[in-house]
Amino acid sequence: MAKFMFTAGPWNVHEGDETFGPGTRPSVPFEEKIKKFAEIGLSGVQFHDDDAVPDMNNMSEKAIVDYAKDVKAMLDKYGLFAEFVAPRLWFDGRTSDGAYTSSHKGDYEFAMWRSFRTIDIAKALGTNKVQLWLAREGTLCAESKNPVEKILQLRDSVDKMLDYDPDVQILIEPKPNEPVDRSYCGTAGHALALGAQTKDPDRVGLCIESAHSILAGLDPANDMAFALALGKLWGVHLNDQNGMRFDQDKSFGVDNLRAAFNQVKVLYENNFGDKGECVGLDVKAMRTQGPEDCYRHLINSKRVFELLLEKVKRFDYAYQAKCVKERNLEKLEMYVMELLLGA
Ligand code: XLS
Ligand code: MG
Predict the structure, then answer these.
(1) Is there an atom of ligand 1 within 6 Å of 247 CB?
(2) What percent of the chain has pLDDT over 70?
(3) 228 has a pLDDT exceeding 80
(4) 165-206, pLDDT tens digit by residue?
(5) Residue 101 maps to a domain
(6) Which of 21, 130, 174, 195 could form a disulfide with 204 if both were Cys (CB 3.0 to 4.6 A apart)?
(7) What CATH code is carried by the domain that includes residue 150?
């Protein structure tokens, strides 16, 4: 069983801005963030393409790669690796009606250009993992697109990335909503099915995010288990979510402790990490958190994981089997509650 490696992204240390109000904290320089990531015990950094190369839209392909190589040198300085790079396609106005499922030729070409540059940046940072959170792949007005045509267009877009680089591995990160009104690829099942339809399914896997499963009305641990069963869980984004609302990216385990326990349990039982997979955190600090302590949500999430891992390692499988044999699942449930409550 490999030691779990934790990662986070620079966007996890943000200014506190949200839909309903501006930031409450000053921006933290990129290098300061990753220096702190190393100090709090993270092993790697998750990237958006423009986290690594901020001005990439205005740079040549060679300049983008050269800049990314300097970022790799910075990672090396702090003993960190790049877990994946995700094309941040949702910020630009050119993807306002979708990127890979856009109905506008110029917008689609921009999305593919950014995706190919993301692959270039990933290679320069020393990873072959490209993560696709399909933020705007769906509709704002259901009748504006032909869903069958657009879902095939989405598959063809993944095929183009697989063609662009023979080593790239694509991780699809499903989410049922937000910012899009109706997503074309909202759950782990959709993402697995899409990957299976690509020209090289062995190079397409998943990253399951706790909150995204909850927002789909599904159980994160079971989504992870389904991907694990198919050998397709190549990343996770652990966090938490209080019911069906906007994506809160809450610290791991703070709302749904038992669901968090079962996420840690399914990862541990299935040797997640043995092939280099990372425990990615995708969490945001509360707006009330001051700048002097704006990494605590990452520290807390890692600590909750480690505390739950201790509980998982103590789980009594013989007692579980006995309760199951007796069909006394309420006895088993109480055992789990006492385990979690430290009784
Ligand atoms: C947003 C996604 C995003 C991706 C990285 O909901 O979780 O954070 O993981 O762009
Ligand atoms: Mg995420």
Answers:
(1) yes
(2) 99
(3) yes
(4) 999 999 999 999 999 999 999 999 999 999 999 999 999 999
(5) yes
(6) 195
(7) 3.20.20.150
The residue whose CB lies within 8 Å of the most ligand 1 atoms, and thus the one to mutate among 237, 238, 241, is 237
| Ligand 2 centroid – CA 63 distance (Å) | 28
Q: Is there a contact between 137 and 100 (Cβ–Cβ < 8 Å)?
A: yes
Q: How far is the CA of 282 from the centre of ligand 2 (A)?
A: 5
Q: How many domains does the chain have?
A: 1
Q: How confident is the model at residue 1 (pLDDT cuts 50, 70, 90)?
A: low
Backbone torsions φ then ψ of 206, nearest 5 degrees: -130, 155
Domain extent at residue 70: 6-314
- CA 343 to CA 314: how far, in whole Å? 13
Ligand 1 atom 2: the closest Cα is on which residue?
133
Q: Which of 46, 47, 132, 133 to mutate to test the pocket of ligand 1 (most atoms within 8 A of CB)?
A: 133
- Count CB-CB contacts under 10 A for residue 165: 16
